[in-house]
From TrEMBL:
This is Peptidoglycan/LPS O-acetylase OafA/YrhL. Keywords: Membrane, Transmembrane, Transmembrane helix. The chain crosses the membrane at residues 15-32, 44-66, 72-90, 97-122, 128-148. It comes from Oleiagrimonas soli. It comes from the Bacteria.
Amino acid sequence: MHWHASGVHWSSGDFVVAGGLLFGTGCAYVLLARHRGRTAYRAASAIALLTLLMLVWANLAVGILGTEADPANLMYAGVVGVAVIGALLARFRARGMAWALVAAALLLTVIAVVALTAGLAVPRDNPLPTLMAHGIFIALLLTAAWLYRRAARDASDTRPD
């Protein structure tokens, strides 16, 4: 079964994947928010998770480089992998989460440079949309990293000496 709406064609599998992504992101946020209750930590978690969700969603829906079937888009799985593995290694502590997101933002910067130098930007004659998309994702990841860093600093300020 396929759903059609103004040029968008979704199969039943697409709805299952979208539902799984939304459910998984929501569950991850609930677990992170319960794990560390501070406002800065919760805000950082929300921004980071929504940014990674949008990165995956855009990649699956239309592809960031070319179409969703373009193998160059597999590079973005590395960004999600760096963020997730970094978070696990940091055991979800704010300072480590900040470093994980900085690493993910750096990898995304490298991907943008590779895309532009290899002629993978879409459209090929105008790299501005590719630069803007990467810039927005990078800025959001760095904003979340800054909030995690702030949460780490606030937590260390409240510890007894």
